[in-house]
Please model this.
Amino acid sequence: MANQNAFSVEVRNDGVAIVTLDVPGESMNVLNASFADEAYAVLDQVENDPKVKASVFISGKDSGFIAGADVKMLQATTSAGGAAHIARVGQLTFQKMADSKKPIIAAIHGPALGGGYELALACHGRVASDSRKTVVGLPEVMLGVLPGSGGTQRLPRLIGLQQALPLILQGKQVKAFKGVKKGMVDKVVPKEQLLDTAIEMALGMVGKVDPNRSAAKKDIKDRLLEDNPIGRKVVFDQARKMVKAQTKGNYPAPLAIIDCIEYGLNNGLEKGLVYESKRFGELAMTKVARNLMRVFFTDQELARHDFTGSKGADIQQVGVLGGGLMGAGIGTVSLFNAKKSVIIKDRDEKGIGNANQHIKDAADKKLKFQGITEQEHRELLSKYQGVIEYEPLKDCDIIVEAVFENLELKHQMIQDVEANCKDDVVFATNTSSLPLKDIAAAAKRPEQVVAMHYFSPVEKMPLLEIVKHDKTADWVVSTAVDLGRAQGKKVIVVKDGAGFYVNRMLFPYANEIAWMAMEGVPLDQLDKAMVKAGFPVGPISLLDEVGVDVAGKVQPNLLAQFGERFEAPDMSQKLLDANRLGRKTKKGMYLYDQETGKKLKEIDPAVYTLLGVEPNKKISDAEIRRRSLLPLLNEAVRCLEDGTITSPRDGDLGAIFGIGFIPFSGGPFRMIDAMGAGAVVNSLQRYEELYGMRFTPCDMLLDYARNAKTFYES
Ligand SMILES: NC(=O)c1ccc[n+]([C@@H]2O[C@H](COP(=O)([O-])OP(=O)(O)OC[C@H]3O[C@@H](n4cnc5c(N)ncnc54)[C@H](O)[C@@H]3O)[C@@H](O)[C@H]2O)c1
Model:
């Protein structure tokens, strides 16, 4: 790849050089340190050619401007010095652009992220297309590193410290129309005018290049805070406090980002860049970054994975039965993300009223905050219908059912669909607890029945678990996979069985937490220990959020299918009997503000009385973590053992995106590999002696321990 050209230069009659980046052999432009020599040569060429007055950098790919630096290159580095060197090479190349006396303008269409946006930041101006695909930002923090090619130095200088900090700390990707408001890009124009506008801007800057130009329009308050070291210290102190509270010390990158910005603003750009590359190198070697990079690659692999080898049906029209919490969400992602025609059917006007309102609110939100036009808003809504009769569903290609969790009702839905819709319609159920084969038992065409198990809230939760039973046809699975991906979901395909995969590995963890609660471990300690371990939400908060009524439906099925190891204390039943369902009843294990419904920070002391426990058991956070995670790890391996999941990759991503399993661990299987199967087995056996067979290691884990095997090669 390195000996083919990534850059090409065309000098126009008006003196503007169009520099096109088109990385050979890649569907997207990604930056590699091996391009540096070529980039230098191109920059020298335009700098030294007297005919050239200015340049425009543009992508030769339809897929976008530059998606970032090549993560594979980073993953292959084995030392902090090596990684720092990669960052330094990028910095020096971009500095050469920034130092050019002749203006250079970035013409951005599609993603300009990470190294791609750092390149654009080094240009003297940025024009972006108004396409929804066009996003700018520095998402490196998501991979456990920092923008190492000048991003931590140039963005704060361009748009101001307080604006830049959250963007870099959260790795936000900003759409063009918002980017222009923030000063991240200078102009947004229709794609057809992109090149001409960039050329015009470039020519307008000839002889007027100002390397210190800032887009930030600061008011007095911002100037007082940002333009002197004392004011800035206030901003940095607050940012550090916030980051520490949020990351619980699990993610080193955000603090390193703050250090880099502070160092650069206090010591100047040149020193700031050197410092940035050093910190980048250190971060790239951390376990956190290594695992997040692995998740990034396995995620990409999953997005391309062909689960069946069969082609899915062409889907134009999606029908949804039930316009409640889940149905309305499924309708929304089908309409707005997958861009399908959507019909939601509920049983009565009240039910459909909820769905109609939900869809309208979602469309209005897009109009207000996500830059769609009035025309697009109208078009989107014109592809939606809310109905109470079957007739309009007759041509739907797929029906996703999200009515109440009741087997007879689900059977009725299948029969209604078979009676009213076309013969080759796919019937997908969103059941959370009923075995799929039991639902399919009522079908004349069971091969067309599949489960699409979404998580709540549908619009936000990234995972979709697709479940097939023994008779589900491959083309039906592929149809569900295609629709799920079009809806923006990360899709795993699993085998039918109680709890499918996600709930099945979640419940041993949740049950162990419940056992500890009933032994008198304070509920807030259980939450805090697991958040400190790296879960985004603690298990007690999660139960309050989901509702014990919902969780309580899954547990008995798991117990019925898998027996004793899924036994749980009667905690859920006690909460259920007292109608302490959590957020939905403004009464759960936490206290709730009765007016706003907002969850408060304190546990409701009345819960301990209800549960009949004194919350005074002394236990370390590490012990809570070990005791609750081990049964989860064991169950995840059992799922692989019995074919519920087909690969550790699906098991890891299902856990991370389905329940927020500690992302920087890489997932349960990566965690076992890191600990060593032998150590996991030893710990399980130690707890087995104390608490019984719910800790008995499964055969596959024993085998891995005996033979020192790992789930991944690296
Ligand atoms: N809530 C969750 O977190 C969650 C997560 C995953 C899966 N699920 C599953 O999704 C399904 C729906 O759950 P929900 O939380 O959206 O319930 P919900 O109570 O919010 O909505 C159910 C909707 O179905 C409608 N309905 C009932 N009978 C109907 C019929 N005969 N025809 C058409 N519509 C009918 C109701 O009027 C209601 O609007 C359940 O199977 C549930 O187990 C729920």
Summary: The longest strand covers residues 16-21. The mean pLDDT is 95. The pocket of nicotinamide-adenine-dinucleotide is lined by residues 321-327, 345-347, 351, 402-405, 409, 430-432, 454-456, 546, 550 (CB under 6 Å).
